[in-house]
Design brief:
Blueprint: H1 2-16, E1 24-25, E2 28-32, H2 39-45, E3 53-54, H3 56-68, E4 72-80, E5 83-90, E6 93-100, H4 107-116, H5 127-143, E7 150-158, E8 162-170, E9 176-183, H6 190-194, H7 206-209, H8 216-231, E10 239-247, E11 253-261, E12 267-275, H9 281-285, H10 298-314, E13 321-329, E14 334-342, E15 348-355, H11 362-366, H12 379-390, E16 395-404, E17 411-420, E18 424-433, E19 437-446, E20 455-462, E21 466-475, E22 484-494, E23 506-521, E24 528-544, H13 554-563, E25 566-579, E26 590-602, E27 610-622, E28 628-640, E29 683-693, E30 701-713, E31 732-743, E32 746-756, E33 766-773
Length: 774
């Protein structure tokens, strides 16, 4: 026991006795043990220089400063002949740094963060910093809801005092929400409040929406939606007391617990307009829908603020500031809204310019601009101009910027930065469709011919159903008022019997030459409206199958006997279109509608007099969480001016297939001829409703579930022709799922459908169409 005490005293004496027994003037500093670090670098950190007096008290500050650099594992100090000797053992440098197993957090972001903390190849290895990075990585994965994430740091030695650092990451799976509980609510039940959240428990659609996967960001987003819900229903003092996520022991699930304090319900007492009102109050009140006595709604207040700003923006006050000052009466539980309006100066547009348009003439872009130079700036006209530019088929993206004019506080310059698409395309097309079989085509299409904005197209397409050769030229601004003019000429041959089970007893040769004018009407913001008028010459000749007369149906024979096989018609076209889509490819809102009347007048004694009416409509309605409701309708009707007997069978409508009622074989629905082959009819009814849902695969892929309904009907007494002819029967229905994929080689359309109400119809559950452009 005494020996142990003596040893302990000696050790204490060794560590507790100051290193320097006396003070001395440092004449020289000598540093030993350096490999990678220069002596000058070390001396720059020293709190003592040559000529300074080193005392016992300064030794600790020397050690502290050198250890603080993180360069050394061990440091000792000594003195010999007034020379300060510093002996160091350097920490190793990082020879290699490898990160594996990460995908959610990209490697480049990880290395950038570590480099900022001096963790990189060639830098000094500091295990304490590396441990902090490890813990922060784990915390980052926890914030993403990946509570099974693991981070391992392995360090191995390398030659020349270097180490290899391997960071192995196991990201794990995102924890799913097993239960959401909301406490403290009285005005609304828990199920109603949970519906307001971004987070949900697992369900049928969460495989696609992934809303059952927990993350701190989604929790905050859900809480903000909950706050908005209460503020929109009059609870001005609503507060989220706490929001916690409890992780299950297996770290695969979480319980979300939210505690709220609703507060009292508040109503609107009245509102006032203050500030600089440059127009009569009655003009502002047109845009205020808030009424005294109604429940307070933050969203309604914000909408009113936007409408007033929009009103002033139309008048040229682009930089209007509207401050809302609510006056809350806690006794009566009422809110008085004060709109403090400061319109600023009226702004005028000095110049409108375009940038990055290397192929498109400036005048082509300028004719789409609704805002005039030197006129008061209008936010509505500026945005409408941007929208019109975005609908040009040779522009991909539009950016608008407002630049205040130097030394002029009431003028701005407007610039539209455009991103052009390759408007010239020489293409060779190879495709396949279950309806048309192999499709071959070649063409030259110039959407922006010589930078004029005009369209020139030369196209050849051939399949077992149709051979087509055509040329088309369109001038969208034939007149300065925006009237368009299109010329077209084509030759085609159609053989219906080559596809599906259509009538195989005839083929048609057709020659077309026409002109069509498009006239813009109305000044509706966000939508383009046009009426169309044109003439089209048609020369049609029917060729019956004389080699096998039995294939010619009684319906075709009867029509040819009564009307002949050669027709020359003048197609008088009258149409209307309305396009309010936000974009052409994969729209998310708006719609496209077209209505056309074609009246055919005879140009020869044996030609026909008949007409057709076609309507096509497609609407997109955004819902929540990137879900979009899509509805579609196709209606068609045709008849002869002197009765159904004059309506040509080769103008019949058809239904079924991937572009109609999916799940049924293409063109097979409706009446059948005497040979029990699809014959079509003079009336078409085709509609669909679909739910487009996010797929999280690619922006080039759109997925949807759908329900189709449709059929073709005829006014012809089909049974008088005998044979196996049948009536149309009821509407046909189908449900299914579809995927549309825009690839660099062309569009691909896939559908899987279950047909219903079959009456001997041929089903085709899986349907597709694909193509390639080189």
């Amino acid at each position: 026991m005494k020996k142990f005490a003596v040893v302990l005293i000696l050790l204490c004496a060794q560590f507790c006795t100051p290193l320097w027994a006396r003070s001395f003037v440092v004449q020289r500093i000598q540093i030993e043990g350096l490999n990678h670090i220069t002596p000058a670098t070390v001396e720059s950190y020293l709190p003592i220089k040559k000529g300074d007096t080193l005392t016992a008290g300064k030794t600790s500050s020397i050690l502290q400063e050198l250890y603080r650099t993180g360069f050394f594992e061990h440091i000792t100090l000594a003195e010999k002949n007034s020379t300060l000797i510093i002996r160091v053992v350097e920490r190793p440098t990082i020879g290699q740094l490898k990160i594996t197993g990460n995908s959610v957090i990209p490697t480049d972001k990880l290395t950038a963060v570590m480099r900022s903390l001096d963790i990189a190849e060639g830098r000094v290895y500091n295990p304490s910093i590396l441990q902090k990075i490890k813990q922060s990585l784990i915390n980052q994965y926890y914030q993403l809801g990946r509570y099974n994430a693991r981070v391992e740091v392995n360090v191995s030695t390398m030659p020349r005092n270097r180490v290899m650092v391997k960071i192995n990451i196991s990201e794990g799976l995102v924890a799913k929400i097993r239960r959401i509980s909301i406490m403290g609510n009285h005005a609304f039940d828990e199920s109603t409040l949970i519906k307001q959240l971004t987070l949900t428990t697992s369900g049928l659609l969460t495989f696609f929406t992934q809303t059952d996967r927990y993350s701190e960001f989604r929790l905050e987003e859900s809480l903000e939606k909950l706050r908005s819900f209460y503020l929109d229903h009059g609870y001005v003092h609503f507060e989220v007391k706490s929001a916690q996520a409890e992780v299950t022991p297996d770290r695969k699930s979480v319980y979300v617990n939210i505690v709220v304090d609703e507060g009292a319900l508040y109503r609107i007492h009245t509102y006032r307009l203050e500030g600089r009102l440059i127009y009569p109050e009655s003009d502002y009140r047109k845009y205020i829908t808030i009424k005294p006595g109604e429940v307070f709604s933050r969203q309604k207040v914000m909408d009113t603020q936007k409408e007033i700003a929009r009103f002033l923006g139309q008048k040229g006050y682009l930089f209007t500031q509207i401050v809302i000052k609510p006056e809350i009466n806690e006794n009566t539980k009422e809110v008085t809204l004060v709109f403090d309006i400061n319109p600023g100066k009226r702004t005028y547009v000095r110049h409108i310019t375009f940038s990055d348009n290397t192929r498109t003439n400036d005048i082509v872009l300028r004719r789409e601009i609704q805002q005039l130079e030197a006129a008061p700036a209008s936010t509505v006209k500026l945005e409408d101009s941007k929208h019109r530019l975005s609908l040009l088929p040779y522009l991909k993206d539009i950016e608008m910027s407002l630049n205040p004019v130097e030394d002029q506080d009431d003028q701005v310059d407007v610039n539209y930065k455009v991103k052009e698409e390759n408007s010239s395309q020489a293409s060779f097309k190879v495709g396949y469709s279950q309806a048309y079989g192999i499709i071959l085509g070649a063409g030259i299409n110039q959407k922006n011919f010589l930078g004029t904005g005009n369209t020139l197209g030369l196209n050849i397409n051939t399949s077992k159903y149709e051979q087509f050769y055509g040329i088309e030229y369109t001038d969208p601004y034939y007149t300065e008022d925006g009237i368009s003019r299109s010329f077209n000429a084509s030759i085609s041959r159609v053989n219906p019997g080559k596809i599906s089970d259509l009538n195989s007893g005839y083929a048609t040769n057709q020659y077309d030459l026409g002109v069509l004018y498009g006239i813009p009407i109305s000044q509706e913001i966000g939508a383009l409206n046009r009426i169309y008028a044109g003439l089209n010459y048609q020369n049609i000749r029917i060729h019956l199958n004389h080699d096998n007369p039995g294939k010619v149906s009684n319906q075709v024979n009867s029509f040819v006997t009564d009307h002949g096989s050669h027709f020359q018609e003048l197609d008088l076209k009258l149409g209307y279109s309305r396009d309010s889509r936000d974009r052409a490819i994969f729209p998310t809102s708006g719609g496209l509608q077209t209505l056309f009347l074609d009246a055919y007048a005879p140009l020869s004694s044996r030609s026909l007099s008949f007409y057709t009416v076609n309507y096509h409509g497609k609407w997109y309605q955004p819902l929540i969480d990137q879900f979009i409701l899509l509805t579609r309708a196709n209606l068609g009707y045709g008849n002869g001016l002197h009765g159904i007997q004059d309506f040509p069978f080769f103008k019949n409508f058809y239904a079924g297939g991937i572009d109609s009622v999916r799940g049924f074989q293409a063109f097979t629905l409706g009446p059948r001829d005497s040979n029990d082959q699809a014959f079509g009819g003079n009336m078409l009814l085709d509609a669909s409703i679909a739910l487009i849902f996010p797929n999280y695969i690619s922006d080039s892929v759109r997925t949807s579930v759908f329900a189709d309904a449709g059929n073709v009907y005829t006014s012809l007494n089909n049974r008088q022709f005998g044979g196996a002819s049948t009536t149309t029967g009821p509407i046909r229905y189908a449900i299914g799922i579809e995927a549309d994929w825009i690839t660099p080689f062309g569009p691909i359309q896939l559908s899987l459908a279950k047909p219903f109400t079959r009456r001997g119809d041929k089903s085709e559950p899986f349907q597709f169409a694909l193509g390639a452009n080189f």
